[in-house]
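# step 3/5: fold
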Amino acid sequence: MSKTLVEMAAEIVQAQGNSKTMSIEELQESLKETFVTLKNLKAMETGEQVPDSDPNKPAITPERSILKNKIICLECGEEFKSLSFKHLETHGLTRRDYKIKYGFSLRQPLCAKSITEKRKKAGKKRGIPEALKKSIAARKKAAAGKKKTSPRKSTQK
């Protein structure tokens, strides 16, 4: 009795999961990739046309590239804790260019979610959100004060 592609993919990913620790997201992504690979191999074996993958299209979606303990570079597929300026420079990109190219918010940090959480907690511990609110309020107050005391135009001829 022959196995289906789904069963084969599940066995392969299960074996991979037994040999190393993987998050649920990583298991899901691995299962999808394995299934697609098996499907393409079967198509090549039977002589069917294998759909060409777009070389400019990243292997994974941008939303799935930022995981709990790593970020995957959508240019080369390498895994990092944080995408550094130097690494992006090897692809001829700046952080801004990378974010625009792959549809990230310009405020999105290019690092693992765990690092973002640590930074957020450290900032709150130091009182940054409250200081920022006070600074914004002071700027608004100063801007409102300038509007009220704006100089009048002289009418000299």
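# step 4/5: annotate
Residues 1-52 form one domain.
# step 5/5: archive (pending)
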